[in-house]
Structures are given as C-alpha cells and as structure tokens.
Amino acid sequence: MGIFSRPQRPKILFVATEAAPFVKAGGLGEVMFSLPRALTRLGYDARVMIPRYAGIDAEKFSLETVREGLLVPTGADGSSEQEPKEIICNVKKHTSKDAGDASMITYFLENFEYYEKRSNIYGYNDDAARWALLSRGVLEFLRSGGDEWVPEVIIAADWQLGFLCSYLKTTYADDPLLNRIA
Fold first, then answer.
1. CA 131 to chain centre
2. Which residue in 55, 38, 49, 26 sits closest to 141, CA to CA?
3. Chain-centroid distance, C-alpha 95
4. Cα four-point dihedral sign 172, 144, 108, 123
5. Which helix (H) or strand (E) element contains residue 45?
6. N or C: which end of the chain has fewer CB within 10 A?
7. What span, in angstroms and rounded, lies between the C-alpha atoms of 48 and 20?
8. How far apart are CA 129 and CA 27, in angstroms?
C-alpha cells in the first residue's frame, strides 16, 4: 500500500426478511437496522437487502429502480405454468444518510406474487418458496452486475435465508464472481 492510498472498505451484504424502518415484526428488524449502520460508521461498506412487501411505500422512501426484469431461476423445467423455469423480479434501492456521514443503502427484491400483494411478512403457506426466491434473487442480482457492487461477505440473517448459503455453496459454487463471497 502506497503512502497516499487508502485501504478498500470491506463490503458486507446483510440479507433478511425484515429491516426497520421499512418493515419490522421483531428483533431481527431492529438488528438489520442497527448493525449495518454501526458497521458503516466504522468504515465498512455495509448494505441490506430485503423483499419489498406491500406496506413499503416506494414514494415515501424514494425507492430507485436499479434492475428491472431480473430472471430468477426456480430449478423447475418450465413445462407448466404452475412451475415456471424463472420468476421475474425487480430490484429497487433506498439510500439514506442516517449512518453518520456515510450513505446507507438498502435493496428491495420486488415480486408482485410473492411479496407485494402480501400484507404480512410471515405466515403464508408458500413461505419456503418466498425465502428461496429471496435467496436466489439476491445471488442473481449480484451475478447480473446488479448495482455494480459485490460484497466480500454475505450475512444471511435467520433461518429463512439458509437457502442462500446452500445455493452459494452448491448451485453457484463454480460461478467466478459469487464463489469468492464468504
């Protein structure tokens, strides 16, 4: 490192089912608000990604579209409408200045069927499919160039994001961009 160069800020992506102030059912929402902001103040490039539920107001939070038409593979062969080969999602972004001097970025995975027409975070018969979509949607967003940002570490918060860890080590194990992420 040269005398005038600065070390790169470590990049961390927190993925969760909830994060205050956007949506919160309990302690996880509070942690997803506080911990990334604390790390940002310490010099990390910490960001958050959650689903965009019906109750998250795009105008109130000035959500900006960063990716439209993201195709998220389902693992199905696509031979029927009930089991499509891909699910179409969008990704939006909110940037706030409430983490001290640094910007705090939150991404939202949009899908009308699985998130936007739901009034609650939890408690649906297809919750497993919703969390699998979030997990794989995050990885496809990063893989597609997303917001031209790739984390060094992904924190998959709580059991719902166990799919993400599994996909990273199996389905995406040979992906040259994603296989470097811890």
1. 11
2. 49
3. 14
4. negative
5. strand 45-51
6. N
7. 11
8. 23
> For the chain, what's the residue count?
182
* Cβ density class 34-73: b for 16+ within 10 Å, e for less: ebbbebbeeebbbbbbbbbbeebeeeebebeebbeebebb
Round to whole Å and give the CA distance between 177 and 24. 32
Among 19-28, 80-89, 96-105, 134-143, whose mean pLDDT is lowest?
Answer: 96-105
Tokens for 84, please give them: 């499509």
Ramachandran region of residue 94, left (φ > 0), alpha (ψ -120 to 50) or beta?
beta
CA angle, residues 154, 157, 163, in degrees to nearest 5: 75
Q: At what angle do helices 162-169 and 127-143 cross, to 10 degrees?
A: 50
In this structure, which amino acid lies at residue 78?
A: G
Structure tokens at 2: 């040269």
Question: For the segment 72-102, what is each residue's pLDDT rounded down to a tens digit?
Answer: 999 888 788 788 899 999 999 999 876 556 6
159 CB neighbour count, 10 Å cutoff: 9
Residue type, 168: L
DSSP 159: G
Q: How confident is the model at residue 24 (pLDDT cuts 50, 70, 90)?
A: very high
Alpha helices in the chain (DSSP H): 27-41, 127-143, 162-169
Both tokens assigned to 76: 């199905």
